[in-house]
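Progress report, Aim 2. The chain analyzed during this reporting quarter is listed below.
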Amino acid sequence: MVHGVTKVRGVAARAGGWSARHRWAAVLIWLLFVVLATVAGSASGRADVKQSQQLSGEVGQAAQIIEDAGLKEPAGETVLIQSVGQGGSATNATAPEFRSAVAAVVKAVEGTGQVTKVTSPYDTKTISKDGHSALVQFDVRGDPDTAKDRIAPVLDAVAKVQSDHQGLRIEEIGGASMNKTFSDAFGNDFQQAEYSAVPVAFGILLIAFGALVAALLPVALAITAIVATMGLMAVVSHLQPMSDTANSVMLLVGLAVGVDYCLFYLRREREERAAGRDARTALAIAAATSGRAIIVSGVTVCVAMAGMLFTGLAEFEAMGLASLMVVAVAMVGSVTVLPALLSLLGERVEKGRVPFLNRLKRGKANRNGESRVWRAVLGAVLRRPRTALAVAAGALIAIALPAVGMHTQNLTLDQEFGDSLPVVRTYDRVNEAFPGGASPAQVVVKATDINAPEVRRALADFRARALSSGASHGPVEVATHDAENVAIVSVPLVGGSDQGKAEKSLDLLRDHVRPDTLGKVTGLKAPVTGQVAGSKDFNAQIVGAVAPVFAFVVVFAFLLMLLCFRSLTVAITSIVLNLLSVGAAYGILTAVFQHGWGASLVGAQGVGAIISWLPLFLFVILFGLSMDYHVFVVSRIREAKLQGRTTRDAIAHGVVTTAGVVTSAAVIMVAVFAIFGTLSMQSMKQMGVGLATAVLIDATLIRGVLLPAVMALLDDRNWYFPKWLGWLPDLTHDEAVEPPPTKTAPARPGDGPGHPEGAVRV
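Predicted structure tokens for the chain:
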């Protein structure tokens, strides 16, 4: 066996070598980096995405006008008073008992001291056309961003009135009450999912390694990378605002890649020591091989995450930058502090062994530590690669076919949360009785002088035309802010909670009513915003971002594969296989959540659509994470080929020797993502199911069947690199491992013929 290492030229090998020689310095530098990043983040504070930055177009313009004017819309709340009888038995709003209930609601909410501007439906005419429903409206005092923390007494007061008037339905709805309800119902659920991801990952690593210390290392690296990135996010947020969503995505991605990279490195180091190499040589080989694969994979994942920066959506840009940062931090930690820790621990990395786990693993592996299951599967694939290719590709295409009819939209409340929450049913009742009242459009009017005669006439004309055009049934309300020269016009849209019909009303406002009235005043701005407008504009911007994001990610991933493997074939097959994996994930999502096939298994009945942001998000995340496995497996195949093995022997060696680590990494990812698939929010459920199924398909069908079948059929053409591309820089960084002049160990039974002692080139 090899006991000496020379001619190390790659970045990963040099970093690993330095860290092993200066192990305490490497560990202290890493800890100092984590501490400094955390302190810097705490000192600077995190700047979050503002409403005006969420979207470009009219919604962003409206938010910018409001922000520039220093206006902060209070948190508005509504109490629905509704008769519960049918037909003639239904109580009319003019009945004494109805008036008594309205008066009781007004008195109760005013008595809490938490509200202002309480209005009676008899003054504001907010009584439904059938006369059986009415709205008491008011604002919550104080900062609207924290209104949900102060709304509980008001909700209790309304509930008390309801208990005193059993013949009527009395329910509260509004921004504050909805935020409190969702936070109570799902906030803890979501946090629990995040917190449980770490112990789940640790448990799987303990099974994979069979030793406590070895299982702790990947988790420790991932956690420190996440902590450091949180600090860096706060610093960077003053240039690119961040958000809670970006933080959650960063945690998921950081845990996935942090554990993966450490797993790759640690498994290779243990493999080399088990083969008889001394600790120093084993660590050097792991640095030169797995370390290089980590760098190639990390850079590729960073490129994929950078694709989100091309969406023009502040939330996506925040998620992309946060994910990119945590991948970069985890990658650097894997090739620097990890070798130092392994050098410090030495054989102690095997401390805390779990005996029955090791016996179980030995029963599933041959004497070379290779998986018997994957050895059997691969044997069948390599014997009949054409059949394997046809079956696997056919299966993936069949799975992906439902995606052809994918329908995306922003989910409505009942789609997102179902009817399990009373507030969702209240929302539907308000929209049914007052179409568009629960989510009106808002026209934010900015003029040089908001009280100028021509502006007042235009506002009056707009109100009249909004009603006569059929875009709204009213009431159209105007709130004027004289000092800021801003007016906000609230327009309940015909269509209510029916997104399609409401969008037609919105188009009528934007394309006809506004140009014919407000549009005739020179210098006046009147962007239309609101929930329906935000949903429509968001969808339009997402659709517009698909082509540039896809093109950027695919082109740059292709170039990285080309440069790092110096093979046109490997670059092309990498892209095609990853696209197949993403396509299969899209197909499963569409089949389950849109068509309802097996929806009951994941609690997704009746959704009927894919949330609009998910396909682009999944593409970027999956394309990046899939490259983890692909780079690792292909690097090992290439290494075996450079050792002198035939292509088929190299494929067999590369796939089988990486099967354990790829399987362990995939199981961790699937388990973590599956946790999010159990949440009640349909958007989180769709994300979790999509990510979990895609990773599962990628680690099994793609890497275990399709990749070896394709490479076996291509044979030596796998390494095709045309001469006309010779001008490209060579980033292969092959490492040469040479034996010392003395002391060689005998080969073990079962070692393959292509395992020469003299030259392991990576």
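Residues 1-8, 735-762 have pLDDT under 50 and may be disordered. The two ends are 17 Å apart (CA to CA). These observations will guide the mutagenesis work planned for the next reporting period.
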